[in-house]
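Please complete every field before forwarding. Incomplete forms are returned to the sender.

SECTION A: IDENTIFIERS
Entry label: holo-275
Bound molecule: adenosine-5'-triphosphate
Molecule representation: SMILES string

SECTION B: INPUTS
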Amino acid sequence: MSELRNELQKNELFRKLRHNVGKAVADFGLIEEGDRVAVAVSGGKDSYTMLLLLEELRRRAPIKFDIVAVTIDSGYRGFRTDIIEKFVSEQGIEHHLEKTTHFDIISEKRRPGSSYCSICARLKRGVLYGLTSQLGCNKLALGHHSDDFIETLLLNQFFVGSLKAMSARMLADNGETTVIRPLVYATEADIIRFSHENRLPVVCCCCPVCGKADIQRKRMKNLLKELEKEIPHIKNSMLKALSNVHPRHLLDTRLAAEFPTTTCSDASGTPRKQD
Ligand SMILES: Nc1ncnc2c1ncn2[C@@H]1O[C@H](COP(=O)(O)OP(=O)(O)OP(=O)(O)O)[C@@H](O)[C@H]1O
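SECTION C: PREDICTED COMPLEX
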């Protein structure tokens, strides 16, 4: 057993996060007997935490499944893949590092004004899907946590005009890979604390916009932080809302056939406006 895993057995926060992941696995059927899961590890706090939690689950679960860590090197100078490799190997986990020329591709192809992050993420996602199949995996685990879900919900409402967040389990467009997000119930605050307390060797992705991009997401984060002062349970409530959808009380006409609306009545469940 790795030294870190040994220490984590007594760690309260690890137990809490383990409970969060266990609940997500149970609620959404994220992992099944015989699965081989590619765990996307960027060298950031979220994916390191996810890797440790999935390895713990693998050792304890009554079902048999495998994990393999995968890292994409996008070619940004200074990206310390050696640190990631060392950490993963210390945990006794198989690791695949894929070197790409994404940096060159983005520098060449990006049109002025287009978002650096979205091109980079799209390229990475394509390689991750390909690698998942190539490594004989049927699932790909991504390290998005509950704050990512809530912020994405707000971003889509505020800027895209769409009522959607992320899925905890979803068949990817390639029709082969099932994408899973085991940290859906873990909060970013817990992950940050866990990562600091256990000195996870976080590395910077070293892209040209690292830390400076995703301004709109930061705005959502700040907005939530402000609102949290008045409504302490706001994030819990928003996450719960994602699993408590009332299609008849929305305006998407495509849903009409599936969820026919009845005439408006007092029993509609709509909160009444206060006079
Ligand atoms: N270079 C990469 N190699 C492998 N997986 C990646 C890479 N970049 C991102 N991912 C995966 O996609 C998820 C979401 O990516 P994003 O860039 O939003 O990272 P993040 O929220 O900063 O998370 P992390 O703390 O894990 O870097 C990551 O948690 C990870 O699972």
